[in-house]
Design brief:
The chain is mainly beta. The chain has a domain of about 200 residues. The protein has a 24-stranded parallel barrel. It is elongated, with a radius of gyration of 29 Å. It starts with a helix and ends in a 14-residue tail after the last strand.
Amino acid sequence: MNNPTTHFMKVNHKLLILSLSIGLMTALSCKKYDGDDSDDDDDETTIVDAETGNAEDHEEASDYVWEGDTVTAIILNETSITVSGDGASASGTTATVTAAGTYLVSGTLDNGKIIVDTEDEDAVKLVLNAVNITCSNSAPIFVKSAEKAIVILPSGTTNYLTDGSSYSYSSSDEDEPNAALYSKSDLSISGEGALVVDANYNDGITSKDGLIIASGNISVNSVDDGIRGKDYLIIESGTINVTSGGDGFKSDNDEDDAKGYISIESGTITITAANDGMQATTDLLIADGTFNLTTGGGSSKTISSSVSAKGLKSDLNIIIESGDFTINSADDAIHSASLITINDGTIAISSGDDGIHTDNTVNVNGGEITITKSYEGIEGPYINMNGGTTYVTSSDDGLNASKGNGGESNDGSLLSITGGYLYISSTGDGLDSNGSITSTGGTVIVNGPSSSVEVGLDYNGTFSLNGGLILIAGPNSSMTQGASSSSTQNSVLVRFSSSKSSSTLFNIQDASGNSLVTFQPAKTYSSVLYSSSDLTKGTTYYIYSGGSYSGGSETDGLYTGGTYSGGTQYSSFTVSGSVTSVGSSSGSSGGGGGGR
């Protein structure tokens, strides 16, 4: 029987992998900072040597089609099993499938199991028709050997698998199965029905090879990991709820660079995990979907340094094409040992550690990111803010480009801002780089700390300010910094002799009273760095404090479209070079670059 819908799903999955691979290769072409801000294409180098050729999955168009097949019925009668048809046999409360084919399983089985053990080269399909299987000492369903196994959940059915808290093995060196639904072969799950897994021994659903969830309403409650595909875990659609004492989703083949990946096309996914929400040894690729992840008890919890309770975690690359994410994590919300690329989506983060952390590069190209709680908002050696809207609230640095060595020397890290909208409220440094910072576009508003030792802007190398709207409010200390003299866009660093309250407006206007900027910082402040293309060389400007603003609109303290009036002139300045400073330091000393 041909099923065009299933075939279309298969083709779409291949297009997804191709699309994400192209996106990954594009992301990997960004360049490391070498001290030269020129646009010479010869400076481009690959940051990481990523494996984009993920292993081929096992899915075929015919996998989920069973109507019209020759079907063997396996009827569960609580304490006995009846088999009608070929390819399976029953002994007591154990049914054993020994041939490829389609098996319609129905009924309730008390303390029994279904074992699949065949060397046939075709698939075994288990159609679960309102099944309830409990097994006190092993997996209710154990695929011991098969070319691949397909679990089908017909529409309108709810199926239950429950295991006990201890398993019995034939010898002390055995440890398989260790999940309520366990397969040593490739495994797929599909259908419009429901599957409820209560795993009291270890994992909920596990494949030692690849695992595909094509559709279905799946709920897993597990002592350890919820859903694990060792070679790969692919989610095509469906509604999935996982509560786990370990990781929510996991793919952990660390012996083959093409395996150990998680790929999610769509779906509604809720995970409450004691450890990581999703953990991939290689790539974690998300095209779309709705995600609600809580890890380690949430951002209010304190966990041991030996525990990993991250929202999304990959040892290689994380690519988010789109999706709606709510992440409440005791550890980093999004964490990669290599590359993180966010192209679109809505991401809400509350983190007990970093909002987004990478050991190499993070690219924010689009989307809406809101980090309401974090230690550091975004951290990594190379941070590229290229687009989208990002809000960061942090108890330490807002954005921190660092190789983790700390100290006052230039470690070669780079924070690059080329576009988008970035708003930061930080207790530590707002923008911090142990190396350098470049800005060529976008809007940046920083409400840094109210007093020393931290500052709104901190860098150890240079700050090449060549474009964009920049507003950074913070304290006035000996560590307060402006842009570097090599910048091509004009800027002014205004230092006040006394602190201004958060209700005090900051205004710069020309001799005709035309306002360039009116800004109300969200905290007490005593310095403001301002830069935009409106600052013109040779022109005299006047700085006002206080006053009021009528008409127009206000966004994040920035007023536009109205009229400023009533302020007190603080000072004036004439732009003679790209960097202008008004006022003097209050003398307090701040901290250096925020490496951890």
